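Record passed on here:
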Amino acid sequence: MTIYPVILCGGSGSRLWPMSRTVYPKQFMALGDGGTLFQETLRRLSDPSLFAAPVVICNEEHRFIVGEQLRQTGITAETILLEPVGRNTAPAAAAAAIHLSERHETQGGGPLMLLAAADHFVGRPERLLEAIRIAKPAAEQGALVTFGIRPTRPDTAYGYIRLGEKLPATPGVHRVERFVEKPSAEIAAQYLQSGEYLWNSGIFLMRAGTFLAELEKFEPAIASGAREAVRERRADLDFWRLADPPFSSIPNKSIDYAVMERTDRAAVVPTEADLGWSDVGSWASLWDVAAHDASGNAISGDVTAIDVSGSYIRGERRLIAALGIRDLVIVDTEDALLVMPRDRTEELRAIVQRLQDSKRSEAVVHRRVYRPWGSYEQVDAGDRFQVKRLIVRPGGQLSLQRHAQRAEHWVVVRGRARVTRGDEVFDLDANQSTYIPVGTVHRLENRSEEPLHLIEVQSGGYLGEDDIERLDDSYGRR
């Protein structure tokens, strides 16, 4: 039986600020030497001998990031489901299970689905595939199988699973004795010493119909709300929008709380620590899985370090020089610098919350903002003016729009721009420019095969992004 990967792309990744932010969270970032966490998740679940095309679930704000990163991998999704609002993993899993059951009805408990977060790191993906193959017969027979990681330290950031007896006729699969919430350091040390407990990876293999039957038993409101949201979904370009308000009214619960901790079908496959798994939930956990130098440092970017040990140092553009420090995290982005002890990374949410309370944009967006047509970056701003650098990908086009309160001046730096300005349509090459008066209908396109680089100077009494009236948009935005 083929397995349908269900990739869950929710989450804001606030514990990896300032790299990860609400509008562009960690799952869409390349935190190592390869692709993004989302892309690496797609790749390790793409073996055609085991997997079908994936179902991807994300929120509306990230839909074009998902589409572009799928395109870059060359992997075609079975479908992309858009959540109108985040409701945790149980509603997302329910929507995927209902969708798969409708499209791929099979005898018994429905098609097999593997639920996996888009933001996990797996150092040895072949070991994960081995574990999935071990779990597959048990899942086909109706078990709800999770994957437990042999702990290497008394970590208080993970939930734990107590290993039960082996299941008959399915070698390598055990019953789940019980799930345990994130323990204290003392209890976590006891778990590690006993050898009876595993970290809860949050990866699940199960038949869609079996999961839905258990969900109906324990959380009927989630099951019924998901069914209504899927039944009333509507197509939008390459996406399917789950209906709102049915989805928004669903209780916010994880799969663990809603089903796994209450069902008698829960099973677990133990995986060894050399799987190299991490949920990359903090800078400390990223340091754990990163490559270290002889002094135990994980260094990325232009860094000069002398007498430095046990530290995570990451730079985006400028030089970072470090001298005589121990066990720190230093992360320097275009608009924010983070410095903290490595053993206090779990407290980073307090910083993000304070920034949000102060309505600081750095808590939500990067200086570079991604759009379906490309990206823009603020270069300078002052009283009644703002300067941005735009990069329009080949084939990309901005919406046909107008502004009520600002004028714009465009200067092409590289490439060729197709410009619509009122009734005129014309091309601009490098070092050429044009002016868009207030209230003038306009559009910018890149019809070439190379990226278009352009400087935009905005002037007026109000320069907010909400001063855009879209008259036509290729990407379905309103």
User: Anything to note?
Assistant: The chain has three domains: 3-278, 283-353, 368-472.
